[in-house]
Design goal:
four-stranded mixed beta sheet; disordered N terminus
């Protein structure tokens, strides 16, 4: 009788490590703003860590950011806030964007944001899409509140969240020059720092980090 009991106890210890979730991988073109009723604040330097989500229906809000090199200058063109809703269980989810190399292509994407979500086998994950549009210049936006209002509509990408699923956002105010007048998030300086940091070799990155830590 001892072996079955030991086996049962051992099995009880496994769920935490064996349990799988949905892992959303971000790339340098994605500025994730919110997911499943929670606000998200990305990093300025380094690669964004994947977001781990519980299995089931997912709703994400993000911007697509294109960096356009024109001679020695770099221009950043941002899309409106895109809302995507999809179902996934125990999967790795990746973004698949068109190749955007010119300002014209970036503006065309902004008008008609066509992209795909792929799983770990590069199979297409179906999703519904919407947009959080905001007119005029804003120093800050409450994306969680905007999504709550969006989710009260009949938009295909809307998601009905219960009160227990909604996390109250921490208010933040971001100022500075932004690339697109009706989009607020990272400012121009942050994009430039992030872009050139990614271009640098490891020795330069280490010196830069040392400088930041010393100030």
């Amino acid at each position: 009788m001892r072996k079955p009991i030991l086996a049962s106890l051992f099995a009880m210890m496994l769920p935490v490590s064996a349990h799988a979730d949905v892992t959303l991988h971000l790339n340098n073109n994605v500025e994730l703003l919110a997911f499943n009723g929670q606000a998200h604040k990305g990093t300025v330097f380094g690669t964004e860590e994947p977001i781990v989500l519980e299995n089931g229906t997912q709703q994400i809000a993000f911007r697509y950011v294109a960096s356009i090199e024109e001679g020695k200058d770099v221009t950043f063109v941002k899309s409106d806030v895109i809302v995507a809703k999809f179902d996934a269980d125990d999967e790795e989810i990746h973004f698949d964007f068109p190749d955007v190399r010119t300002t014209k292509q970036a503006r065309e994407f902004r008008k008609n944001p066509e992209f795909q979500l792929l799983d770990g086998s590069d199979s297409v994950v179906p999703f519904a899409k919407g947009t959080l549009e905001k007119n005029g210049f804003q120093l800050s936006r409450d994306y969680v509140s905007e999504l709550q209002r969006f989710n009260q509509t009949t938009e295909p990408a809307s998601l009905q969240l219960s009160a227990t699923q909604v996390v109250a956002p921490v208010p933040t105010v971001r100022s500075g020059k932004v690339v697109v007048v009706d989009s607020v998030g990272k400012n121009e300086e942050e994009y430039q720092l992030h872009y050139w940091y990614q271009k640098a070799d490891q020795e330069t990155k280490n010196r830069f980090r040392a400088f930041i830590n010393a100030n």
